[in-house]
Amino acid sequence: MKLLLLLPLLLVTEATFFVSPDGSDSNDGTQASPFLTLTRAKEAANLENEPSTCQISLASGRHELPTPFVLTAADVPCSFVSGDADSPAVISGGVLLDNKHFTEHDNTLLSYDLSNSFPDPSPFGEIRTGTLGDCANSQSQLFSSTTPTNLARYPNVDQQTQLWDFVSISSACDSDPSESPCLSEFTVTGDDAARLAALTPPFFIHGYWSFDWADNHVRVVSVTANDANSTTLKIDPETNPLYGFLPNARFVVENILNELDDASEFLIDRDLKVLYAHASLDLSADLVVSKSESVLSFQDAKGFTFTNLVFSDSQATLVSGTGSGIAFESCAFRNAGGDGVKITGTDIIINNSSLTTAGCSGISLTGGDRVELTSSGNVVSGSVLKDYGRWKRTYMPGVGFGGDGIRIENNEISQAPHQGIYGSGNDHLIQNNYLHDLCVESSDSGAFYTGRSWSNRGNVFAGNRIENVRPLTPTKLGYLVVMGVYLDDQMSGWAIENNTFVNVMQGALLGGGRDNVFRGNYFENCDVGIEFDCRGLTWDVDNCVVGGPFEKDLESFDYLEGVWSEKYPAVVTTFDVEGGSKPCTPQWNVIADNSFCSCQEGVSAYDGADADNTLIEFLFLISRQGKTRLTKWYGQYTVSERARAVRDVTNLVLSRPPKQCAFIEWKDKKIIYKRYASLFFVAAIGNGDNELITLEKIHLFVEILDSYNSVLKSCGTMDDMMDDEKEGGAGGSGRRNSSKK
């Protein structure tokens, strides 16, 4: 009997291997005789006979990887941990320089021969143009433990604020940009013209060419000094600027040696394999040049965990690939040439970690099945992300998401030129995050941004704090505003609830979508709290018409039946025009119970919303006996103003004869009312707003209450109210008494 009880214990096997920068791959991987490389430890684990547990312990210090460390579906799941919790191991894709080998190039520059460390023919990668939302960066960079670095450039980055300065385009091509974009050349005049004329091509420039939300890099092939105050730059036709050049567009010059004039700058001569740095470079710092394209790569890997490790120094993305059941706990991601982490899969967990100094986005997770609405189980939580978007400035969020069922919670995201959180999909939960100091270099952007879909449903953005979202660098092209929350181009199906917005240029934008809820949010020191529009009725109508892109997108998910119709019943009737749906009209949005403090405007409307969608200032439900059953405030009123409004409006409505017009002028407002059974529904609008539309809104509101069997039963059944309307109209001649209190 005792032997039988012990048998399960005998089946448990543990495999533990040790890796050290001072080890050797000819060792046996024990603590006393550790391996040198992660690859050797992985191979040893794979030779074990399906161990119940596998751990690979990394000693403190730098574990340099000349090529990415790859984990696949064929590898035994293991836990990678730092052997010393107080001194995490660093897994680096770079080469640590021996600073004593820097030599004086001239009076202002130092040089370092990289040929021994980079023997391959083309080891440094290349500068790539990139498209909208495309990182496209994979090149060697100098990383310093004390100073973020950039390619040698003009103008320099302000080292105190880390803000960029720019040169402005004076004129672009001779053609009309509305007919064809200017792709070939532009001219700069004024103080910068002479400086540009002194530069020797080829070199690169990086700019916002047509919009202050779209940037890329282009290659200059010739420079012509027209006169002392005018210089023309011609562009390599293989490197087109995004959307073409426009006057006033801003840019920086990069990767040119005679602009290397600051300790934060570097340049690598790819032909000579020589690194150049400024003479003021801190040679007491750890200086690393990235060599490996990435540090860690997953290929359908399963069941790996990483604890208390540092991933650092890649030419492109630090950690990337596909997999499931992968977890990072208390890890640091830093010095990524491209993205920090970019993984597609399920049950990917990143918790209590940090990301700093990334060329593109911070952490991006995608997974789940949007057709079957199966959750990915992916989570980014309790982490700090900052100083990303250093190479590609726009559409490079701190946290990116896609697919189904991703949770983004309890993170701090800050210090970036563009977005904090960006993505798409279904059933995502974004809660209790702190987003601040974002969109500092862009316009027409949002700290949280998503857009252009009617199939994105079941999403919640709740309990977040958004603070200090204003452009700090002058923007010159496009729509000059940034938002805390941006639901762009008729985005639908989001609940924006119980968030706090402080010092945000515009708290939130509802860009004409459907079935969105803005409820219980607090806005302080915002130029505008919430702005909404009806762009589907104006310039964005092509997307929402029957047979248009939005309907085709929904059809790809078989939204009229099955799991979609069960989970999102409101979507089923979106294009049911005969049933009363108006696809391009922003129907069924709710803006309620929000608070505004020191905002220039609380709720604002544009794009025809003023003309076609009258803004209701407040809504009352009043009994025939003068009892207030409900008050909803959508304009800004103090407590005393609210009390006076309730008193005055109640007296006005109750004193009116039944057959008198249901429109009353009151102060600078119009009061619109209608009686159903024992209740008066009362709305206030501006003097210039449409009374008939408001009256229709009141009736639609009552119909909605009736269809959802509202709590207003306490004032008389909704059946009574609707029967009264059908039988006797607003005057109540056909009213039936209700026994309900």
TrEMBL record:
| Record domain AP complex mu/sigma subunit: where | 616-708
Give the species: Triparma retinervis
Q: Which residues form the Right handed beta helix domain?
A: 401-545
Q: Which residues form the signal peptide?
A: 1-15
Gene3D superfamilies hit by this protein: 3.30.450.60, Single-stranded right-handed beta-helix, Pectin lyase-like (2.160.20.10)
Provide the taxonomic classification.
Eukaryota, Sar, Stramenopiles, Ochrophyta, Bolidophyceae
One Pfam family in the UniProt entry = Beta_helix
Sorted alphabetically, the keyword list is: Signal
Task: Kindly provide the name given to this protein in its UniProt entry.
Answer: Right handed beta helix domain-containing protein
